[in-house]
Amino acid sequence: MIKYDDNLKIFSSSLINDNSFFSGFGTKLVGDGRKLENILNFFSSNNLTYKKLVIPEQIHSVNIEVFESKIKENLEKISETDGVITKEPGVVLTVVTADCSPIIFSDKKNSIIGISHQGWRGSVKRMVQKMVKKMIEVGGNSESIKVAIGPSIGECCYNIDEERYYEFREEFDGYSDKIFHLRGGKRHLNLALLNYLLLLEKGIKKENIDYFPFCTKCDKNRFFSFRRDKKGKQYGEMFSFIMKS
Ligand SMILES: [Zn+2]
Hints:
6-stranded mixed sheet; 22% helix; metal-binding; 7 helices; Cu_polyphenol_OxRdtase_sf; CNF1/YfiH-like putative cysteine hydrolases; alpha+beta; S-methyl-5-thioadenosine phosphorylase activity; 245 residues; 7-stranded mixed sheet; binds zinc ion
């Protein structure tokens, strides 16, 4: 279940968070995640300690890094990466999104965590499945992997042009009935549902997937939205994170 924490101003998945695993999907109230000071402030003002903060340079790719600390500093940036996986304790993995889908992964049995960012580009290239594959390569098991799909633009607001529609249809023809809808003559895509279906296809159990019910564009009190705010003054991105002790 996805729950809101009034004090921290984040959403989190009860499938993932426990005494040793801590993750969350930040809201607008935490501030623009593209500004490092907002992330640092979130952890310090809530007395949340960690050893290292990892920030990937997101480029809408399907590049995944298996993170191992290389330097002593408590901040490490990774270039050209949209997915990060680690086994190291005390490491906070982060991504920022506004409409794109942030997805958090954990395999508690094998002590692995991961996070990824996927908009339409990452989704059409099955980023979520590449994440599962990589977690298995480093010792994870599809039976024990749990996943939380964070807040993204809903099917209600995500209309796509013909070109993109055909691109998705070609790749995911079997899911057409579920992921596409016609609204006011326009084709809409359900990105979060697509990622959910791709996880099932990859062998992740239904009961091990938490699925976010809201739309970033509709809910302007809690979320930033690229489509709604474009690059205007209101525009920002939410940060999401996971760490383990
Ligand atoms: Zn909407």
